[in-house]
Automatic annotation (TrEMBL):
This is Alpha/beta hydrolase. The lineage of its organism: Bacteria, Bacillati, Actinomycetota, Actinomycetes, Jiangellales. Keywords: Hydrolase. InterPro entries: AB_hydrolase_1, AB_hydrolase_fold, Sec-Metab_Biosynth_Hydrolase. It holds the Pfam family Abhydrolase_6. Residues 3-223 form the AB hydrolase-1 domain. The keyword ATP-binding does not apply. It comes from the Bacteria. One of its GO terms (molecular function) is hydrolase activity.
């Protein structure tokens, strides 16, 4: 199966480097994306929009020949909303979405509020991120993360999501729960917490626990790869 891998904020396609071998050993073809404005720390991000990022994911889906089957679309953190938007744009081409530590966003809402400087969002301090999100990342892993971190375009988080095709609700989803548990997520959904209410509209959702911090592609890449392989097998 073709697997499109969408990074979250501050990361490019290389953030999947430890996960890709596990997927390819299972026979899959991987497409780790570097989204517009994330090509380097010096890239011009001033005009990059949320739609530019959604379009990049859709283009990766469209690049897979239809005779090679549907595509698994994997999003980490804020990339989960991009995966969902891509499923909205191409519901007939997406076999399943996988959300890692993130949620699908509903139509008309922005993806979040982050501290921005000059139109871009730098990686916050470790203190601001918090130890729960950084669990299982030692000092060397944290130093590597910070060295590779690229500021993200501010408009990606402030532009409203635009969704138009209700067939997205029929696309099966796997939710991989790292710094929160599946039980916690279900409780948030049942309590009516706004960021997770789009899950109530999906017709086929499974929840998978992967206890670690917010970045399992760094802290537990083999476990994450196996979880994505399991989702592909479904």
């Amino acid at each position: 199966m073709h697997i499109v891998l969408i990074p979250g904020l501050w990361l490019d396609g290389s953030s999947w480097d430890q996960v890709v071998p596990i997927l390819e050993q299972a026979g899959h073809t991987t497409h780790p994306l570097t989204l517009p404005g994330m090509e380097s720390k010096d890239a011009d991000r001033s005009a990059v929009t949320l739609q530019d990022h959604v379009d990049a994911v859709v283009a990766a889906i469209d690049a897979v020949p239809e005779d090679e089957g549907k595509v698994l679309v994997v999003g980490h953190s804020l990339g989960s909303a991009l995966a969902y938007a891509a499923a909205d744009a191409r519901p007939d081409r997406v076999a399943r979405t996988v959300y890692i530590g993130g949620f699908p966003a509903k139509d008309g809402e922005p993806l979040g509020a982050f501290a921005a400087e000059n139109g871009e969002i730098p990686l916050p301090s470790w203190e601001d991120i918090g130890e729960d999100d950084l669990k299982d990342l030692d000092d060397a892993a944290r130093a590597d993360f910070r060295s590779r971190a690229i500021p993200s375009p501010e408009q990606v988080t402030t532009d409203p999501v635009r969704l138009t095709d209700d067939r997205r609700y029929d696309v099966p989803a796997t939710v991989i729960c790292p710094e929160f548990s599946a039980g916690q997520l279900r409780a948030w959904i049942d309590a009516g917490e706004p960021p997770v209410q789009e899950f109530t509209r999906l017709r086929d959702v499974e929840y998978v626990d992967l206890p670690t911090g917010h970045w399992p592609q760094f802290s537990r890449p083999e476990n994450l790869g196996r979880a994505i392989n399991d989702a592909a097998a479904r």
